[in-house]
Each structure stands twice: as structure tokens, then as C-alpha cells.
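Field reference: sequence -> structure
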Amino acid sequence: MEFKIEQSVLKEELGFLQGVLERKETIPILSNILCESIGE
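Structure field:
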């Protein structure tokens, strides 16, 4: 699946995850989240 999103929007949303993920984690952040598309 391919999708486009403004960098500022993605950065803001991923910022919410900083408090949830461990700082020592070596797994890339995108392997730990689900991206859903709502609408077109």
C-alpha cells in the first residue's frame, strides 16, 4: 500500500508515540504502529 501525507502531520502524530516507546528500543518505529486510511 502506498499513501501520501504531509511531513508536518506525520511528525506530529509520531510525536505522540515518544512517551509510549522505550528509549533503548532498536526496532524501527514504523514496525510498531498501524497506519489506517480513512476516506480517500
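Note: The mean pLDDT is 74.
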